[in-house]
C-alpha cells in the first residue's frame, strides 16, 4: 500500500517538475 502511494506521488511530482520546466523554458524563450 505504501509503495503504491509512493508511486502515485512520484508520478504527480514528475508532472509538476515537467510543467515547471516547460514554464522556465517558455520564459527563457521570450
Automatic annotation (TrEMBL):
It is a single-pass membrane protein. Its main location: membrane. InterPro entries: YjcZ-like. The lineage of its organism: Bacteria, Bacillati, Bacillota, Bacilli, Bacillales. Keywords: Membrane, Transmembrane, Transmembrane helix. The chain crosses the membrane at residues 12-29. It is found in: Membrane. This is Sporulation protein YjcZ. It comes from the Bacteria. The keyword Cell division does not apply. It comes from Amphibacillus xylanus (strain ATCC 51415 / DSM 6626 / JCM 7361 / LMG 17667 / NBRC 15112 / Ep01). GO terms for cellular component: membrane. Belongs to the SscA family.
Amino acid at each position: 500500500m505504501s509503495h503504491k502511494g509512493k508511486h502515485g506521488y512520484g508520478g504527480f511530482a514528475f508532472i509538476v517538475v515537467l510543467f515547471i520546466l516547460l514554464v522556465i523554458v517558455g520564459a527563457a524563450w521570450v
